[in-house]
Amino acid sequence: MNHTILVAAVFVAVLGAGRALAQADAAYTPARANKVIELLEQGQPVYYAQATGGYDDGVRLAQTRADYINYEMEHGVFDLTQLREFMRGLVDGGPARSGHRLTPVIVTLPVLGIDELSVRANHWVVHQVLAAGVHGILLCHARDPDAVRALVELARYPFAPAADGIGEGLRGAGSENFAAEIWGVSRSEYLSMADPWPLNPQGELLLGLKIEDSHALENAELTTAVPGIAFAEWGPSDMEFSLIGLPQRGGQQLPPMQAARNRVFDAVRASGIYMLDICNEGNVAERIDEGVMICTGGANAGRAHTDREMPW
After folding, report:
1. By the number of CB atoms within 10 A of the CB, which of 91, 179, 185, 265 ranks highest?
2. Pairwise CA distance, residues 94 & 102, whole Å
3. Where are the chain's structural domains?
4. In this structure, are residues 231 and 206 in contact, taking their beta carbons and an 8 Å threshold?
């Protein structure tokens, strides 16, 4: 057997093993395309993994135990071809352990929510990322409610249901072709599904905010209240840069930092959206009881704490 055939045989075997593992775990019939939305509607917290890379990384993460994948493009390489290949890898290595076609992917954008002009001028970034078939976007340094409204409009199609304070959607015809292939649905089905939840209860996209500096903090109550936003976090590392300066031991426990976290959390609660925060196996139960619903870690203890029924 030559080397090329051997490599291909091993690759096929790995994909087959992944599918068998997923089928063994998935004594569950998914109700939605987006596993995260399905879990949140059940009142269950979700847990995510980090990723960059292309096709091979997608295949490797297709059987992740995480509920979604945060794909890093803020400081990582902004390579749209690589992102599309990552999505192909997720599909080819799937289905996910829960039985969903693929684990949802939320992309952290390199575009910052500093002001409306910044977001609108970079409309192509939002459109190209969504056209890759991802399931959501995380906007960093979300300082301006008008910038957040612009993000929501950029993520919607013109025919999406009207929403107070949100203008006509700006996604265009043709953006659905590759994305529908990744989601495993028809073009018309994708067009009806690709809208932000919970603004559209039938939507399958998630939009989130990083309220991670002093300027964003001042508008936390306004940005989190923009229709179409599903979750927010307080970005403790960048918040420490902004409020404290150079990172220091115990800096995130200092009173200004804790006050920032509390303000973001209060804004999230008031807006009826979901809080993302740092969690681990030791503190996740406490975080969940506090109201955190999107966790960086602690999945084993967290799932046990909430008696979760959906498989990994």
Report:
1. 179
2. 6
3. 3-305
4. yes
Strand boundaries in 141-256, DSSP class E: 206-210, 231-233
Dihedral of the alpha carbons of 212, 216, 218, 222, in degrees to the nearest 10? -120
Superfamily for the 3-305 domain: Phosphoenolpyruvate-binding domains (3.20.20.60)
Span 193-203, pLDDT tens digits:
999 999 999 99
Tokens found for residue 178: 């590759």
Quick: pLDDT tens for 241-281: 999 999 888 888 999 999 999 999 999 999 999 999 999 99
**C-alpha dihedral, 177 to 180 to 186 to 188, nearest 10°:** -70
Alpha-carbon distance 137 to 171, whole Å?
14
Q: pTM of the prediction?
A: 0.91
b/e 295-312 (16+ beta carbons within 10 angstroms → b): bbbbbebbbebbebebeb
Residue 202 main-chain phi, psi, to 5 deg: -95, 0
Distance of CA 306 to the CA centre of its chain: 21
CA-atom Rg of the chain in angstroms: 19
- Residues 126, 151: contact at Cβ < 8 Å? yes
